[in-house]
Amino acid sequence: xxxxxxxxxxxxxxxxxxxxxxxxxxxxxxxxxxxxxxxxxxxxxxxxxxxxxxxxxxxxxxxxxxxxxxxxxxxxxxxxxxxxxxxxxxxxxxxxxxxxxxxxxxxxxxxxxxxxxxxxxxxxxxxxxxxxxxxxxxxxxxxxxxxxxxxxxxxxxxxxxxxxxxxxxxxxxxxxxxxxxxxxxxxxxxxxxxxxxxxxxxxxxxxxxxxxxxxxxxxxxxxxxxxxxxxxxxxxxxxxxxxxxxxxxxxxxxxxxxxxxxxxxxxxxxxxxxxxxxxxxxxxxxxxxxxxxxxxxxxxxxxxxxxxxx
Amino acid sequence: xxxxxxxxxxxxxxxxxxxxxxxxxxxxxxxxxxxxxxxxxxxxxxxxxxxxxxxxxxxxxxxxxxxxxxxxxxxxxxxxxxxxxxxxxxxxxxxxxxxxxxxxxxxxxxxxxxxxxxxxxxxxxxxxxxxxxxxxxxxxxxxxxxxxxxxxxxxxxxxxxxxxxxxxxxxxxxxxxxxxxxxxxxxxxxxxxxxxxxxxxxxxxxxxxxxxxxxxxxxxxxxxxxxxxxxxxxxxxxxxxxxxxxxxxxxxxxxxxxxxxxxxxxxxxxxxxxxxxxxxxxxxxxxxxxxxxxxxxxxxxxxxxxxxxxxxxxxxxxxxxxxxxxxxxxxxxxxxxxxxxxxxxxxxxxxxxxxxxxxxxxxxxxxxx
Lengths: 310, 369
Description:
The complex is a heterodimer.
Chain A (H helix, E strand, L loop, with lengths): L1 E10 L2 E11 L4 E5 L6 H8 L7 E6 L2 E2 L5 H6 E4 L11 H11 L4 H14 L15 H13 L5 E5 L7 H18 L2 E6 L2 H7 L2 E6 L2 E7 H5 L5 E8 L4 H9 L4 E5 L3 E7 L5 H10 L4 E7 L3 H9 L6
Parallel strand pairs in A: 3-8, 3-9, 6-7, 7-8
Antiparallel strand pairs in A: 1-2, 1-4, 4-5, 9-10, 11-13, 11-14, 12-13
Helix pairs in contact in A: 3-4, 5-6
Chain B lengths: L1 H13 L2 H19 L8 E7 L4 H8 L4 E5 L2 H9 L5 E5 L4 E5 L5 H28 L4 H14 L19 H22 L1 H8 L1 H7 L4 H29 L9 H7 L1 H17 L3 H19 L11 H7 L3 H13 L9 H25 L2
Parallel strand pairs in B: 1-2, 1-3
Antiparallel strand pairs in B: 3-4
Helix pairs in contact in B: 1-10, 2-7, 2-10, 5-6, 7-10, 7-12, 7-13, 7-15, 10-12, 11-15, 12-15, 12-16, 13-15, 15-16
């Protein structure tokens, strides 16, 4: 349905996206995962025809849309990372304005506005000025505007940044429902791996402009099938203990947080007894030690040596 | 485009603060400055008590423009000084004068100098008369020859207006209203145009790009709104002074307002050019403050350009839309020029509009700001 073929994008000396290949089939929810600055927003802008790639092609229904973007533009709704709304207008006025620019008129426009307000749960706030909305409500309206003209593909660029857990959960459910009930194709970018894990059928992981992994959730987690992710929990750590872990020949990607250390070891090597004796040697008050099922975060850590939100 | 206009109007209704602020400020400034000239004449009012035999000095003083000398009785003079209505008064006697100071102010020195000049001139005349009589010549003819040589001067002097065709005429009230209206409208228009930059940063512009709306409609909608807002402000200011302050504008107010349309358009165009050159709204705010004040100063919004002699400043004025806007206002209201006579400033403003809009939009599109 929609393809990015060998896409690169350079801004002066910075190469934001490097040789990116991606395909999206109808009815899928595709996740684009990566830390800040990974190139996700640039990829999304190219995908939505807002910027032209330096190299490569974007094809929609097998036709290039780089120079003639209108067929794709008609089919997509874009939810930008910013709150792209008129702050001085009410929720309803915003929807009416954006509906009109999509040439919706009269009763059809009113009906769509009502439907969208219902979908995003803002029917009772329709007359309220956007400026006075909470962050979550603004985000929901931001999504609503992109849905007005019933797009085939909804492209969402980090739609849950900076909002409370309740609003985030509402947005995730809305996206799930749109996909399930309306068979809407969704491209969803985030640096929250749990969102992508929950929503998406297939995932593309980007880092520093490169695509570093792609596939279904299970396929990506299989990257770690020959390795275990071990979690050590304690009240505090000593530098000697951490240095010892990092220097161990069978341990890699030691990631230290306040009360938890995660590390990766080959499945065939049992380092449990060694870790326990190390904690005794360095006086670490060990609370738990267990093997974790791999998460997308672990995969990212494995592939880049960095945590997703570093 | 209609939708964009409608949205901007709704936003304006919800938040008219900037518009009201700049409209109010320009009315206030023009009003206050012109109110300082009591009685509709020019110059600071100075009460004068004239003693017997000093009537000639009073007549000479009344002819001066720098101060507005008006005759009062001695009690009124003292009362006005006591109550602080005026800071300085004058008592004219036959052979001397007294300056009465109620409140210390720099005007006292200037008033003293002015009165002194009148007395000196009178004494000179007396001396000339006496000398003429001593020499057996007709004193009146000598005095009139003296006046002639003073009036005509040693050198030929000619004064030209902006059109260079006749002597310079000046109406301070018209100039002040025009100057402040044109100056403050720069801010109103510029803050309207810069919304394009804000909308681009917010992503609203991208949303519209992805919609079936044409880019030309997006620009037209936003620029047209900024023009309407700025032009409305100019109209309101002129009408306030026309109806409430009794300024007639030579009965040409409608003509002036129509001929100022190219001025408002040129400011819209200049604003789009500035918007295209800056990187963000903060930078725009800093730049527009400097540019608006500079344009007003160089363009003659605060003082008449006719008193400027520096060739560099006069050259810069020729590149300045404010100058041409004021040429239209002064031309119609003071000189009584017709539309055809004012075709030159109108054409230059139209040319500026086309040029700045073209370059501005081209730059904006190229820079992807």
